[in-house]
Amino acid sequence: MRRAQIVSSLRTKGAASVRELAETLQVSESTIRRDLDVLDRNGELVRTYGGAALSPQAAAPEISFAASAQRDSAEKEAVAERAASLVEDDMVVVLDIGTSTRLIARRLRGRPITVITANLAVFDELRDDDAVRVCLLGGVVRRNYLSLVGSLPEAALRQVSADLVFLSCTGVRPNGHVVDDMEIETQLKRAMIEAADRVVLVAGEAKFPGTGSLRVCSLAQIDTLVTTPGADPQTLELCRQAGGKVFIA
Length: 249
Prior knowledge:
By secondary structure, this protein is of the alpha/beta class. Helix content is 38%, strand content 24%. The protein has 2 domains: 2-58, Arc Repressor Mutant, subunit A (Orthogonal Bundle); 66-248, Translation initiation factor eif-2b, domain 2 (Rossmann fold, 3-Layer(aba) Sandwich), CATH 3.40.50.
């Protein structure tokens, strides 16, 4: 609650000092500093000398996972269907955070596979399915996005050897950079890439170029790209030239 109040205050003021926040919330300055450190790691603000400022990606209020889920379109469903068809029985599959991977998980029900994820929505899709072996990575719960983040899932992924990772993103740049807009998710995505033999990027046409300034990887690191007919053809050609397969859902 207190950390939400800090972010809300910064959305109003843009920036604030530790002293100002401590006085407003009636807690000690050391408590505020600890809160700011956590919020900085989560990408919700940027620590400054003596205080904090709102991070660029948090300048607009976060859209909740539920609100994002309401925007699931026929395109996302088609991408999920095509992506799920890449999974073979007995595979070990890592599913990234996001609504697209939740839709993929729904299509993997009843399959004799192992799913590893930090996505609580994926867990909800598969939790009662006896056919799928589910491994839920630990971490700090990010409630708006039904996800687990931080150093714990990253450390756990270093012990994982998976066949596939289904990776989401917020944008694919014309220069071939795959980007995201939250630092704490970007680090987790990189760990997922390292844990899998093959990387499948699920990115509908709206992600070309999409948004985000934090580089996750390049198209050269993507083995398969699943997208929709309106995706930028030159960017798709970059993927092919780098050795990746492109599937249009």
